[in-house]
Design brief:
Helix content: 10-25%
Number of strands: 7
Distance between the termini: 20 Å
Structural class: alpha+beta
Number of domains: 1
Largest sheet: 7 strands, antiparallel
Shape: elongated
Length: about 140
């Protein structure tokens, strides 16, 4: 049976929680230039939509969730420290973290001409359509 589901990607909550200089110390809550996914926000939507896979276990149990994935964009644009705080189970957290960790390098954030580390958060909404929701017995 083919599983049909909707994956909604809600973007972008720029939770620029803090920036770090290259010596790894917190320097400022102000980020002059925010990091950018290659190709911009629309490309990020497309990347997530094409790469996130609804876990079979979550489909089977009718689990839906908004998984907020926090990660660090390093000075070279690579992704590090991928994490979710709230655990939803059924493979939802792991899938959201997997896709974010596999993202291509971003254009890094900057203060002046200096690239900086920036924490970023992306919410990924896992939502089943009515046909895929388990029926109550």
């Amino acid at each position: 049976m083919k599983h049909i589901y909707f994956l909604s990607v809600l973007l972008i909550s720029f939770n620029n929680l803090w920036a770090q200089s290259s010596n790894n110390t917190a320097t400022s809550k102000t980020i002059e230039v925010m990091p950018e996914f290659p190709g911009g926000q629309e490309a990020l939507y497309a990347y997530l939509s094409e790469n996130v896979r609804y876990p079979d276990s979550a489909i089977k149990h009718g689990k839906e969730a908004m998984v907020k994935v926090k990660f660090l964009i390093l000075e070279d644009g690579s992704i590090d420290s991928v994490q979710t705080k709230q655990q939803f189970g059924y493979g939802l957290n792991e899938e959201a973290e997997r896709v974010v960790a596999a993202m291509p390098k971003w254009k890094p954030g900057k203060n002046g001409d200096m690239p900086i580390r920036v924490y970023y958060q992306v919410p990924i909404k896992f939502s089943l359509n009515n046909e895929e929701k388990p029926t109550k017995k």
